[in-house]
Amino acid sequence: AGENFEQTPLRRTFKSKVLARYPENVEWNPFDQDAVGMLCMPKGLAFKTQADSREPQFHSFIITREDGSRTFGFSLTFFEEVTSKQICSAMQTLYHMHNAEYDILHSPPTNDKESCSTTGDCNGTSVSKLQRFNSYDISRDTLYVSKCICLITPMSFMKACKKVLEQLHQAVTSPQPPPLPLESYIYNILYEVPLPPAGRSLKFSGVYGPIICQRPSTNELPLFDFPVKEVFELLGVENVVQLFTCALLEFQILLYSQ
User: Fold this and answer.
1) Contact 84, 142 (CB under 8 A)
2) Residue 175 domain-assigned (yes or no)
3) pLDDT, tens digit, for every residue of 111-145?
4) One MF term in GO for this entry (predicted)?
5) Domain extent at residue 35
6) Cα 184 to Cα 146, 188, 194, 257, distances in angstroms
7) Domain count, the chain
8) Measured between alpha carbons, how far is 63 from 6 in angstroms, rounded to an integer?
9) What are φ and ψ of residue 8, in 5° steps?
10) What is the pLDDT of residues 208-245, one digit of tens each?
């Protein structure tokens, strides 16, 4: 809703929803379906074909409540093949509608030879037009849709949570079943793995290998499990130095992102 409909249907985003959650609710951390859904898929539900890159993407988020308490979310987004013929047909229909609207909006004036010579579109044989019409063909293309699995935790154990989610995803997509049912690993994470004491490390078993999380002691800096290297890669050294200077001088800092 509210998007520019000149975007092709595969480039649009669609409304996502929470398919399942476990446990249903936690007393100290009531589940906010709308917030979690929006933060897990901030750009909405996405569709792709076999021609697009479909590598899993990981990101994190924070839910801050009215009393200032925080919980941390870690989300792994991947793509699954769409098996519903109804959804595939709907995508094909959206493309027919999009192409028809595009032609009405961009058709050259009648008898405009100059327009024909510059666009090469009068006979309907231009590359751009063919690409538009062939961007999704139900008889030829495989349609994929985004799905995500998420962990919500009381502390920001980013590396451990990323490994847990990656191993769960690997177990789901692997042709060989994991050593134990997936439910066993999920139950273990939720109910049998304790929060490590301050200043201690904890090692527990994942689906395919051990996972370690470490909690700083009370006289150390607070837990920050994110690689600082990524900040430099995203912003560059000069911008990081400028940002750090602004923080030291107590300037107001606004971060704007899509």
Assistant:
1) no
2) no
3) 555 544 444 444 444 444 444 444 788 888 899 99
4) guanyl-nucleotide exchange factor activity
5) 1-104+135-154
6) 25, 6, 16, 38
7) 1
8) 34
9) -65, 155
10) 989 999 999 988 888 888 888 989 998 999 999 999 99
